[in-house]
Amino acid sequence: MKGKLVAIIGDENTCTGMLLAGVGETNKGKSNFFVVDNETPKSAIEDCFNRYMEDADIAVIVINQNVADEIRHLLDANDRPVPAIVEIPSKDKPYDPTNDSILLRAQKMFSADELR
Questions:
Q1: CA–CA separation, 82 vs 66, rounded Å?
Q2: Residue 50's beta-bridge partner residues?
Q3: What 8-state DSSP symbol labels residue 34?
Q4: If pLDDT is split at 50, 70 and 90, which confidence band does 20 have?
Q5: What is the C-alpha to C-alpha distance for residues 43 and 74, in angstroms, rounded to an integer?
Q6: Is the pLDDT of residue 18 over 70?
Q7: What average pLDDT does range 37-46 have in this prediction?
Q8: What is the Cα–Cα distance from 40 to 36, expressed in whole angstroms?
Q9: Under a CB-based contact definition with an 8 Å cutoff, are residues 15 and 33 in contact?
Q10: Of 107, 31, 44, 108, which is closest to residue 70 (Cα–Cα)?
Q11: Taking the CB of residue 110, how many other CB atoms lie within 10 A of it?
């Protein structure tokens, strides 16, 4: 996994914070971040997600949960371990663990006794 990137799909605040933390990369006309606002069409989010899923340089996709809800069908259909998908809250929307498909999938792997 050496030299792999973290990609971000999120609101302006999330992307800005990650870029300030040094996560951003722009190389040969492609970048590892995608800013989503109220005007961003669902198809653009889907295209970006699919592009990141096929990019061999990306090991982790960080996505705001409210954006993930827009493309939940793609997240639920994904069964690949890499790139790992991490849902995080946005400034305006709190995190809801009942909507996190990756967390729900992980919980199904363990019995209630194992989680105690």
A1: 22
A2: none
A3: E
A4: very high
A5: 12
A6: yes
A7: 96
A8: 6
A9: yes
A10: 44
A11: 9
DSSP E strands: which ranges in the chain? 5-10, 26-27, 30-31, 33-35, 58-64, 84-88
pLDDT in tens, 42-72: 999 999 999 999 999 999 999 999 999 999 9
Q: Identity (one letter) of the amino acid at 80?
A: R
> What whole-number distance in Å separates Cα of residue 69 and Cα of residue 3?
29
Report strand pairing: 58-64 vs 84-88: parallel
Give the predicted TM-score (pTM) of the model.
0.84
- Between the CA atoms of 29, 21, 85 and 41, what dihedral angle is there, to the nearest 10 degrees? -50
Higher per-residue confidence, 9 vs 92? 9
Residue bearing tokens 């400034």 = 91
Structure tokens at 44: 């653009």
13 contact partners, CB below 8 Å, separation of at least 6: 90, 91
End-to-end CA separation in angstroms for the chain: 32
> Which residues, other chains included, contact 60 with Cβ-Cβ below 8 Å and sequence gap of 6+?
4, 5, 6, 7, 83, 84, 85, 86
